[in-house]
Amino acid sequence: MAYDPGAIDATLAAAVGDEPALIAELRAAFLDSVRHGLDALEAARGDAAWRAAAFRLRGLAASFGAVRLMAIATEAAEAEAHDAALLRRLRRAVDRL
User: Fold this and answer.
1) Which Gene3D superfamilies match (predicted)?
2) Which pLDDT score, from 0 to 100, does residue 14 have?
């Protein structure tokens, strides 16, 4: 799956227009939310909590056009809870945002 580093900024620009300061603020809020989502995924107790956290992360990623993160979160929702390889892939995807 291709990674488009401008997708998040384009999504934000479409929502708020040409407001660089607001785009930067919203981008920072998005990244903060994603990091909290990953923390929730890692702290999930049981399969249902894991799946719910993965779906929340997927929804957040989809809302901002983070396609790669969305795809990996979808995999996580369908995988065994606390899959270490998927958690590593999610962290790498977030680091690339």
Assistant:
1) HPT domain
2) 77
Token match 């998040």: residue?
Answer: 8
DSSP notation for the chain: ----TTHHHHHHHHHH-S-HHHHHHHHHHHHHHHHHHHHHHHH--SHHHHHHHHHHHHHHHHHTT-HHHHHHHHHHHHSPTT-HHHHHHHHHHHHT-
How remote is the C-alpha of 78 from its chain's centroid? 16
Q: What is the pTM of this model?
A: 0.81
What pLDDT digit, counting tens, does each position of 64-92 carry?
A: 888 899 999 999 999 999 999 999 999 99
- To 5 degrees, how large is the angle CA 77–CA 58–CA 53? 55
In the block, residue with structure tokens 């995924």:
41
